[in-house]
Design a protein that fits this description.
About 10% of the residues are buried. The chain starts with 8 loop residues before the first strand and ends with a helix. A two-stranded antiparallel sheet has the order 1-2. By secondary structure, it is of the alpha+beta class. The chain has 4 helices and 2 strands; from the N terminus they run ββαααα. The protein is globular. The protein is about 45% helix and about 15% strand.
Length: about 100
Amino acid sequence: MSQFKNLPKAAALRYNPNGDNAPIVVASGMGHIATKIVDMAQQNNIPVYHDDSLASLLSQMQSGSEIPPELYAAVVDIYVYFLNFTAQDIETEQEKKD
């Protein structure tokens, strides 16, 4: 069994349709780094999406890397999910964490 299996994993993505070919990993990591990525997102009212499988893959990528085409569909689903978010939804998510 891997010592990394139960560590939290996280990644932050950026996508600029006017300049990026694909979403870019701007932060990724496991353990303490993953926790800090999520904490920073929540402190800045950036919604967080939980998907352990996708986080496991993205957390291994280096900052500045484009996501691979195999992950496009999964990431599009996340972007669509967030497009349907409202400011109230973000506040509700934040309250759940507090």
